[in-house]
Amino acid sequence: MHHLRHPIRLIPILFLCAILIGTALLDLPIATAGGTSAPLLTSFFTATSAVAVTGLIVVDTPTYWSGFGQGVILLLFQVGGFGIMTAASLLGLIVGRGFGLRDRMATHVERSRLETSDAASVLRLVFRVTVVVEAAVAAVLTVRFAAHYHMPFLTAAWHGTFHSVSAFNNAGFSSFSDSVIGFQTDWMILSPLMFAVVLTSLGFPVMQDIRAKRLRWRRWTLHSKITVAGTGALLLTGFAAILAMEWHNPQTLGPLNWGAKILNAAFHSVMPRTAGFNSVPVGGFHDETLMANFILMFIGGGSAGTAGGIKVTTFFVLFAIVASEILGRRDAVAFQRRFGGAVQRQALSVTVLAASLIFVATTYIASISHLPLDDILFECISAFSTVGLSTGITADLPPTALLVIAALMFVGRVGTITVATALALGERDRPFRYSEENPIVG
């Protein structure tokens, strides 16, 4: 059992156990609306999507699953979201690279062990934020559903709670068949969902840093500065791109008034951060808009949060490396701090591994199906980045392709964190260096 002692090996096993338990529960006859057992692949895919807080589905959640089944799904993405937040934050503490959960000096402080006070602080923060934000968003949505849409209170409370927990965990599951398309002009529904998604996509190390140091920007850790600045830039860029490219599209923003266009463009600049709700049909997006979503989904959100993707910090480090090379600078820098060689190697490794997995999965699915390549690529990026958005092809995929998508969701949820941490923990200095020789690059 020695191989289980290290948390980097234990976390994927725990998530796999949650998926298997979820599969068993969803395979019970009581879990379906029809009272018969769901196909094993359907139960497994749904459980994986829920634990991986992705939101891709092969059956309609509110009509196929019973109240019990929907409750199991809600529990699974709550466990998946809470578990990954705490695991990622604690692993970041173990590695000690960029996760400033305590007041530190401006420079990096390397630590070789996890301090009990840090662990307790992370757990308390995760629990408190989870309870407060989910309860507040659920209350707002419940009141809106009951008062404006005349739903019975218990029904409104169920929909409000389901969407609140789903949004907070970036799960993307909806208790409505058309996601939130039916509320595309209602800012009282879309705004709370956006708030919950953006907040948790920042990651708990950033929340802890902001809580300790308030809005004193100069005292924030480099990780927090990069995450907040990068998130803001991506949200604004995504908003402008979607608004411009979809303004006249009759299948998406075209029929809406200018206020609703702005609201939905903002909503869909937030959702590719790995949330998965949609207020307009994603399959109706122009090709150029899908391309913009490829980038937003692949980057994802902040580290040690509920978001997926390669993470904002990873992208920012790579961008800084390219910028330093173009400008002829020796060091890759950001906010008057330089990135160490180990961090640069980790960022490159995570990105290459992610791109390689998506390429292999897309190629394989394209070879066994006749679906459009851009739709398959969108599906694979969405699965790996645990986004949950789809152009509508998920249910049309052959069984082996669904297993590939399930594997992408699992690796995307736990793999990027474990790979990055393994790279950091596995770093060793050799007592010698090889002779240097530089091949031609570019």
TrEMBL record:
GO cellular component, one term: plasma membrane
Ranges that cross the membrane: 6-26, 38-59, 71-95, 125-147, 187-206, 226-245, 294-327, 347-368, 401-425
Membrane topology: Multi-pass membrane protein
Record localization: Cell membrane
Lineage: Bacteria, Pseudomonadati, Pseudomonadota, Alphaproteobacteria, Sphingomonadales
Protein name, UniProt field: TrkH family potassium uptake protein
Keywords from the UniProt entry: Cell membrane, Ion transport, Membrane, Transmembrane, Transmembrane helix, Transport
InterPro entries: Cat_transpt
Molecular function (Gene Ontology), one example: monoatomic cation transmembrane transporter activity
GO annotation terms (biological process): metal ion transport
